[in-house]
Amino acid sequence: MPRSILARVRWLGAGRQALVALLVSIAILPNLSAAAAPAQSVAGDDLRAAFATPQDIADGKHVALASCASCHALSGIALARGTPHIAGQRPAYLYAELRVYQAGRRGDSPMNNAVKFLSDDALVKVAAYYASLDPAPPAAASARKASKADPVSAGKDAAQGCSGCHGDTGISETPGMPNLVGLDAKYLAGAIGAYKSGQRKHGMMKTLVSALSDAEINSITLFYALQKPGKAKTPAAGNKAAGKTAATACAGCHGQGGVSTGTAPSLAGQDAQYFAGAMQAYKTGARTEAAMKAPAASLDDTAIKDLAAYFADQAPQPPRVKKPMTTEEVADRCNRCHGVDGNSTDPRTPAIAAQRADYLEPVLRAYRKGDRKSTVMNAMLDGMSDDEISEISAYYSRQKARTVVYVPVPTKP
Ligand code: HEC
Ligand code: HEC
Ligand code: HEC
Ligand code: HEC
Fold first, then answer.
1. How far apart are CA 361 and CA 387, in angstroms?
2. Which of 336, 334, 347, 341 is nearest to 8 (CA)?
3. What spatial distance separates the first Cα and last Cα of the chain, rounded to whole Å?
4. Are 141 and 398 in contact (CB under 8 A)?
5. Which of 46, 346, 352, 396 has the most ligand 4 atoms within 8 A of CB, as the residue to mutate?
6. How far is CA 369 from the centre of its chain?
7. pLDDT of residue 17
8. CB 400 within 8 A of CB 341
9. Tens digits of per-residue pLDDT, 116-156?
10. 101: number of Cβ within 10 Å
11. Is the CB of residue 275 below 6 angstroms from any atom belonging to ligand 3?
């Protein structure tokens, strides 16, 4: 008996409009144009759910009622946090994932028990049933931080209150105010954290940064780390040549010419007055840092002044920092496989449009950690930050989900 293709079309009935799963019985003819079919698609075991008959779907509904509806609802539109919508999901993907749960290869979840005792036939049918349903509506756009889509401009906004002292782009024009460019984002975040906690004692900076959230601190430090570095535009009175000689003792940690490649901060281009103040603070113990205790202790005021003049004159370099992509840029990469706005057209690749964000987020983190295994997805998530994961999850939850008409796949002649 020829298998039929599960296809979905909008059917305009008398006065009512309904999306129905229409099963077009198309014999898979060997002489169908091979060029019209996706090159890699060959009707195989994994595509069985895409070739369901109307009877399969009706049987699948019984399975759903008995085994799935308590969590996914009979509509496939889940109501509980962390439970995915499965209505309108691509059939071959659904079937493949059910088998993954059955084999216990997707961690420990309520799904393992739900499918444990189901036959392969029941899995094919229940997958076809849920695939044939209308997908969930998109999530409403939350007013929450629309500007977060571009983390760098968010950092610029949050740093507005800092520019009066530290300069518009982190290049100081006021003696005593440190340059914030040319410094590693991690060092800057650590310094801000130390002011906040009081570990680095400075009443004014504590007040200034106390209201910043971790996310704001991250975007501010990213903003400064991505600015073009330049020397502080402030005077430096000491003897640069004498400073250069003394600076050989600092290069091991602070790098050649004060451009650090390790965890110690870069010193190149730093404001001389701030520099001297920091050295005094290490000397008196007002600023505690084991690594700086000995280098500072042996230096008198003249030596500090000379070192400050030398380092102020060195050219700062951009720290190594990856410019994060905007959410749209990330989505462009995902859509290559998941389809326009996350509406996959391959029955084996999941659609992600209108999926619950509270399901997508943990799934993406599981791919990143390697807990959920998929060669492509593990690679895609490599290096993605928590923020990027929340943003892209919220983004897809707001996209409109669309159904797909599957085209017949010819068998090899
Ligand atoms: C006790 C509640 C519960 C029952 C019953 C249940 N599910 Fe699930 N289902 C979940 C939860 C929770 C998840 C998310 C688990 C995860 O993150 O791996 C899930 C995940 C899934 C997924 C993965 C979705 C995706 O996009 O990767 C599919 C497919 C699925 N369920 C289908 C079914 C089917 C079919 C049945 C009935 C045979 C069923 N579930 C029964 C709770 C349930
Ligand atoms: C009123 C002037 C002023 C403002 C406004 C200000 N700062 Fe500062 N900032 C200073 C001074 C002065 C220091 C040096 C404090 C010290 O000696 O520890 C400093 C130090 C710092 C440092 C440490 C630099 C290093 O090399 O260790 C960081 C980081 C910093 N500020 C970030 C910020 C951020 C972010 C903002 C805005 C939220 C801000 N500052 C606003 C005056 C200011
Ligand atoms: C053993 C490694 C080490 C050596 C050697 C060393 N430093 Fe440091 N230095 C550090 C570390 C780590 C910090 C960051 C400490 C902190 O966060 O307070 C630092 C901080 C500083 C700062 C403060 C920078 C800022 O932006 O606030 C100055 C100034 C400084 N060092 C100057 C020197 C000079 C000058 C020498 C050589 C005479 C020197 N250091 C030698 C490790 C070192
Ligand atoms: C090269 C193709 C490809 C690219 C690019 C890709 N994906 Fe995937 N994605 C897949 C495949 C295949 C699966 C099914 C993997 C599995 O079975 O675990 C998948 C699974 C997923 C899932 C799980 C869906 C579910 O319902 O459980 C999510 C979420 C997802 N991808 C999101 C993304 C995001 C976000 C991006 C971009 C950062 C992305 N994908 C990029 C191919 C891709």
1. 10
2. 347
3. 18
4. yes
5. 352
6. 13
7. 28
8. yes
9. 999 999 999 999 999 999 999 999 876 455 445 577 788 89
10. 20
11. yes
Query: Which residue ranges in the chain fall short of pLDDT 70?
Result: 1-44, 142-149, 405-413
The two three-digit tokens of residue 239, written as one number: 């003897």
Ligand 2 centre distance from Cα of residue 274 (Å): 10
Looking at residue 193, its amino acid is G
Q: Are 88 and 76 in contact (CB under 8 A)?
A: yes
Question: Ligand 4, closest atom to CA 89?
Answer: 26
- Residue range 315-356, pLDDT digits in tens: 999 998 878 788 999 999 999 999 999 999 999 999 999 999
Give yes or no for a contact between 181 and 224, defined as CB atoms under 8 angstroms apart.
yes
Token couple for 334: 């995902």
Torsion region of 38: left, alpha or beta (phi above 0 gives left; psi -120 to 50 gives alpha):
beta
CB 316 within 8 A of CB 357: no
pLDDT of residue 412: 55
Residue with tokens 């008198």: 300
Residues 6+ apart with CB under 8 A from 18: 11
